[in-house]
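# step 3/5: fold
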Amino acid sequence: MSINKRFSFRRIFGVLALIYLAITLIVAGVFIVLSTKNNELSSENLITEKEFLDQGISLVFNAFFFYFTLNAFYWRIANREKAAKFLKPVGLGVLAQCAYHYLLFLLFNDDNVILSVDDVERGDPLPVGMMAASYLMIATFYVSISFLVAYLTSLRDARKQNQVLKQQKIQLELENAQANYKFLKSQINPHFLHNTLSFFYARSLPHSAELSEGILTLSAIMRYALSEGNAKEGRASLKDEVEHLQNVIRINQLRFNNKLNVQLQVEGNINGARIVPFVLITLVENALKHGDLKSAECPVVFSIHLHGKKFYFYSHNKKKAGAKEHSTGIGLDNIKKRLTLAYGNKCLLQVKDSAEYYTTELTIDPL
């Protein structure tokens, strides 16, 4: 019979050998303790040649038994086959266990098998019926253990497979988004744009210092955005990311005559640290878009902390009154996918969206 191998014979044999060894050591320990209290017990009674042979045969048989039943059960469970498909391995497993124990009885038991219940009352060996029932119970136990192990293993494998598929889906979506971004970027000549903004900056200097500052800041923002954050191996300099945030906040201040109540706090040595690019700017732009930027009592707060390799970002803003701007939530979903792909379970993004306030917290440990 062909067997699809999810469980290798070598591994099953090794696990069973360890279990048998552990049981033997426990029994030996108990025997030693009892022998100190009972002088009639001796080491000769501990392991006889008959017992040693019995355990050896048991180890080999059960290794083959679990090898066939585990693999048979596993693939039926994994393929979600009907209950009728399980009858064959169950029946063969029970039959094999019963036959094995009966053969052991014939090989190692010198007592005669009797049929009379009266013999049991006189202290004679168990009758055939009770012996068969005991074999059936033992066989059912072994088959149940095999089914349970196969079932739990299939659940674990399915969970791992779902995680792999989820990661692959995230990767494909990010690659698609990256391809779209590169296509849009290819439609814009960054050198032409930078040179044009530099020209406007030079021409505006004699007329308005504020306008020229705005053009220069916009030029820095566009240059950084089109350079993909100067990312290397998917990471950008945290210092450059912070400067990018400062430029975005500054350009918004110029738009509203420096009347925005926005605070950016940075703690820790960010030099040399690297982070996935454009994650922070997306969170900042979201707050600037939907927040009440002119509230005197509740400023928009952005806080960045880097202590050792633990990174923490905090954003808190009061929501604007009146009609809400439509949000697709694509930006936030994209951030979650990128963070999951880059950091796995080492990062945690929490969003608290109440009726009046909006708060985001991002922790990456280690960065």
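# step 4/5: annotate
Confidence is low (pLDDT under 50) at residues 112-117, 119-124.
# step 5/5: archive (pending)
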